[in-house]
Every structure is written in structure tokens, then in C-alpha cells.
Amino acid sequence: MASYCLSLFFIAIMAAIALMTVTKARAQLSSGPVSSLLGLFRVDGVLYCTSDGNASGTSVSPPFPNATVLLQCEGAVISSTATDSSGLFSMMLDPLQVLLSNLLSNCYLTVATPLSTCNHRLPTTGILSSTLQSSGTSIVGLLTVTRLVPTGFRLITSN
Fold first, then answer.
1. Per-residue pLDDT at 146 exceeds 70
2. Which letter, b or e, does each residue of 17-52 get, where b requires 16 or more Cβ atoms within 10 Å of its Cβ?
3. Least confident range of 11-20, 136-145, 146-155
4. By three-state DSSP, how is residue 32 classified?
5. Is residue 94 very low, low, confident or very high in pLDDT (cuts 50, 70, 90)?
6. Is the dihedral angle over the CA atoms 72, 75, 78, 83 positive or is it negative?
7. Is a pLDDT exceeding 90 seen at residue 82?
8. Using CA atoms, how far apart are residues 19 and 56, in angstroms rounded to an integer?
9. CB-based burial of residue 117 (10 Å sphere; 0-12 exposed, 13-18 middle, 19+ buried)?
10. Is residue 72 within a helix (H) or strand (E), and if so which, with residue range?
11. pTM for this entry
12. Is CATH 2.60.40 correct for 37-156?
């Protein structure tokens, strides 16, 4: 009986050591130079069929489905996606190809699909555009995922 208890105690100690090692490794990987190798940026949001692409505070805003959303940095498109039937969009970015500081200061989302596509009463010209802001990070396995969201779309017209 004593050897059985010793075996259980040994297994419990080994499990605790393994758990502490994994926790410490995860903490080290989620901060510091290795985190950029094991991380992702996720840009997501909701696009509405309104004059500025944002939800209206006074009424239920319809979604803008099948709209092409572009992520542009310094004029170059680095990613694109389409909204789903609920107006949701999401894109994943590799941090080895773009820096977080660059995403927040030199990049913006644009909507290539005219607003009139979702509602004929909305403008046929102009581009919806939004800068990005960080919305926190989460750890998924060994990956650190930094979430970026639009600061708020606005309609840009060329006059």
C-alpha cells in the first residue's frame, strides 16, 4: 500500500512540474521576440448598410452582406475579404509580414463595394474607410492572437 501511495505522489508531483513548465513556456512565448514568430493579427468587424457603414444608435441597422473589405497599408492592398450575410468580416495576418505599429499608424480598411449595392437610396460614389485599433490579445495554444478592429467607418467622397 505504501508503494502505491508513493507512486501516486510521484505522478502528482510530475504532473505539477509539467504544468508549471508549460505555463512558464507559454508566458515566455507570449511576450518577447519569439511571440512574433508564434503570433497572428486578426482584423475583424461588422459592416452595416448605412450611410457611414456603422450601426445606427437609434434603430436596428441592416448588415452589408457580400461587401469586399480591403486592408491597405501605405496604399498597397495587403489583404482582402468579403462580409458574410450578417456583415461580418475577418482576416488573419502574419506578423512577419507586417508590424503592429505599422498596422495601427499606416494601415486602414476600405470597402470596395459601393453602398448603393445594399440600398439603392445610399450613395453610388465614395469609399467607406476606417483606421484600426487594438482590441486586446488572446492566447490560443502557443499562438498569441492580437485582435484589431475598425475605429469607425466614414464615407470619403472626392469633391
1. yes
2. eeeeeeeeeeeebbeeeebeeebebbbbbbbbbbbb
3. 11-20
4. coil
5. confident
6. positive
7. yes
8. 47
9. middle
10. strand 68-73
11. 0.73
12. yes
